Amino acid sequence: MGALMIQGTGSNVGKSLLVAGLCRAALRRGINVAPFKPQNMSNNAAVTPDGGEIGRAQALQARAAGLAPSVHMNPVLLKPETDRAAQVVVQGRAAARAAAADYGALKARLMGAVLDSFARLRAAHELVLVEGAGSPAEVNLRARDIANMGFARAADVPVVLAGDIDRGGVIAQIVGTQAVIDPADAAMIRGFVINRFRGDPSLFDAGRAFIAECTGWPDLGLVPWFPDAALLPAEDAVDLRRALGSGGLHVACPMLSRIANFDDLDPLAAEPGVRLSMVPPGRALPGDADLVVLPGTKSTRGDLAFLRQQGWDIDLFAHLRRGGRVLGICGGYQMLGRWIHDPEGHDGDPGSTPGLGLLEVETRMAPDKRLTRAQGTALGQPVEGYEIHMGRTEGPDCARPFAHIPEPDGATSPDGRVAGTYLHGLFSGDAFRAAWLEQFGAASALDYGAGVEAVLDRLAAHLETHLDIDRLFALAR
């Protein structure tokens, strides 16, 4: 069947969800389908079976397609470390650090890896569904583009343009995109889709007709708002909601400036007995929290400074005095120790930073990144997940490991109220999550994996109801 690309009129218009739903719809039709995103920018990464890393959205799309994730599904991943610099991951491996102003010069070399990965997927699957990044209307980036029309033209992949009506101005989004892009790029677009509509669809019939008349592009359908999207793992930090659930166990998590892999908390948020508060900058950690989770981060020392700027360290100490508990995951675990040493500047400027001092451990950053899937036991239950971090952590509290995967992982304070682990995804396992909640007097009532599968099926059915899926797939080449 070939390939089809979903581009968007902007960031966060629902491209990732559309591709995931289309992957599941294809799978339900018996089509051998795979997702692909040439370039992604996210600190929410997933580890592939071969020890590489890709964007979390592509891992979800792979699941929707019934596949294990592969580094070739997202050959270029940018992981922001500061407002102006990012780590560049190529085919699963960290390849460089680049300032935003210098990244354009790398793109010519990166296109080769992008096309190589795409060719591998295309050779192995009947259909490849490609997700763009940002918007093709960012014409200032077009000259060296590898994420949108630069890729579509180089790989000769037809494009469907998705606009988000929920944010307003969707007519201008789509018509304006055609107005500013190169005519040869516009010729790659085979139609448009309106996403995230609320209310009576007939009220926008005239708007859809106007877009089709102005652009000459076929109207491929209108997708109503899909509320269950909130039950799927999110990749972009802009998707983080401040409060989830209304259960009796209150879990709080500070929204660090470089927060990473925050989908670790999704299974907890889905539990009926849990209330999760994502605490934005400028707000105190809630005084009634039972558990504070310090999440992963792409910049441990930088976000530790950010945490202190918000006064969250003071809130954390007060939380412990009230009898609360603390769990640090990956970078959050490193923050809990006495010191974070980075003499060679692998995670920022060279130097050492005092940690929060809540665990008797110290972390030393190293150039090699640990990327591995892991499984073992914790709290007497099976646990599995993945590690994706730089640095090694040692100290007396490591004598009380958080888990064995199978080697000892993490550390626990003598009183058991502060713990840290390098294991991401640990709450996805039902048995471990139930044992963890039991410590707080809460019961688990959730089969998390089955829930995600059910939502993907409902998403596919939602798209099948409102789009002509066969017509869409027929556009692939």
In short:
This protein is α/β, with parallel strands linked by helices. The protein has 14 helices and 27 strands.
Note down, in words, how this protein is organized.
Residues 4-235 form the CobQ/CobB/MinD/ParA nucleotide binding domain. Keywords: Cobalamin biosynthesis, Glutamine amidotransferase. It holds the Pfam family GATase_3. It is built from 14 helices and 27 strands. The chain starts with a strand and ends with a helix. A hairpin with a 3-residue loop joins β24 and β25 (408-409). α1 (15-28) packs parallel to α2, α1 (15-28) crosses α13 and α5 (170-180) runs parallel beside α7 (205-215). The chain is an alpha/beta fold and 477 residues long. Helices cover 30% and strands 30% of the residues. The strands form seven sheets. It has a seven-stranded mixed sheet with strand order 13-16-14-17-19-27-26. It is globular, with a radius of gyration of 23 Å.
Relative strand content: 25-35%
Helix content: 25-40%
Radius of gyration based on Cα positions = 23 Å
Question: Which stretches of 5+ consecutive residues score pLDDT under 50?
Answer: none
Overall geometry comes to: globular
Number of helices: 14
Biggest beta sheet summary: 7 strands, mixed
Seen as an oligomer or otherwise, the chain set is single chain
How do the strands of the widest beta sheet line up side by side? 13-16-14-17-19-27-26
Q: Termini distance?
A: 6 Å
The helix/strand class is alpha/beta
Mean model confidence by pLDDT: 94
Number of DSSP-assigned strands: 27
Pathway: Cofactor biosynthesis; adenosylcobalamin biosynthesis
Keywords: Cobalamin biosynthesis, Glutamine amidotransferase
Domain CobQ/CobB/MinD/ParA nucleotide binding: 4-235
Domain CobB/CobQ-like glutamine amidotransferase: 251-431
